[in-house]
Amino acid sequence: MQSAKNQLEKKEILARQAVSDRQEAEALLNQERIRTRTLSHELETIRTESEGKLKFRGIENLSLQVVQAYLSKLKSFHAPAGGLLTAYLPPGTRLSGVISEKALKRVEEETRTLLDRLEPETGLVLFYDLHRMVCEAIAPPFPITFPAWELGDSFEVSLLEEILSKDYRMLVLVLHAGESFIGFAPDAQVFDTEELIRSSVKEKHSKGGFSQRRFERLREEDIAHHMDKVLEVLDRVLEEKKLIDCVILSGDFQLIGEIRKRLPFNLDIIEKPSDIRVEKAGSEEILRTVLSSRRYLL
């Protein structure tokens, strides 16, 4: 009887000890969870602050002639150890979704962060030396259609050269309130159809109150009238030019949105951010600008 009682007491002691051990373990686990969450939050804060401080070393536009000379220089680079990475990223893709995980780890995080900030409608080509003698990206004037990458002794520029050398039949629209340009170029040389559309559009009003609202309403009517004239020319050009490879749009964001609604669904549309001012640039300058590539020093 005493033996059974002793065994029961031992079991109760063990049970209490087990409960105590479990409570202590849960307390330590909660502490670790809180510590992990705190460290994760601090790490995310540091990463966000670091990303905010990251800046491109430089950004510039390269004309068709200049970018060809630039590619010639890139072709002269050689790395016997195979340390030159080239990656072709179509619109909407990231480096992590194109190259292997092993190769991705060899690209600095700062470079990947800057690259992920870029979202050009035509995609990007990354040229990256693992020793960072070369670290930059090019947004070509026309879209990269499929992903590709290579880590070798030289940069792979032939795909980009192919994009730049192709003759696209382009419809170009530069849209601004009061002054817009429409041109068709059968190749990268010259417009064979071009038209400048001018209208009288009131400048923006800076005063408040009823006079401003009335002024803005009149200005909107002027812009609508200007867009009617633009659409009239656009319809005529679309009727005359049945074979169009792409439409390049530049200028005022709202006007671009209106034009997009009127373009055929089967046309490839490229929006190019630029500061082209129709009143200051001739047709040659407009064509040179829309055919330029954008270079980002990472």
UniProtKB/TrEMBL annotation:
Q: Which domain of life is it from?
A: Archaea
Q: Which InterPro entries match?
A: eFR1_2_sf, eRF1_1_sf, VLRF1
Q: What is this protein called?
A: Actinobacteria/chloroflexi VLRF1 release factor domain-containing protein
Q: Where is the signal peptide?
A: none
**Organism classification, top ranks?**
Archaea, Methanobacteriati, Methanobacteriota, Stenosarchaea group, Methanomicrobia
Where does the Actinobacteria/chloroflexi VLRF1 release factor domain start and stop, copy by copy? Answer: 169-263
Q: Which SUPFAM superfamilies match?
A: N-terminal domain of eukaryotic peptide chain release factor subunit 1, ERF1, Translational machinery components
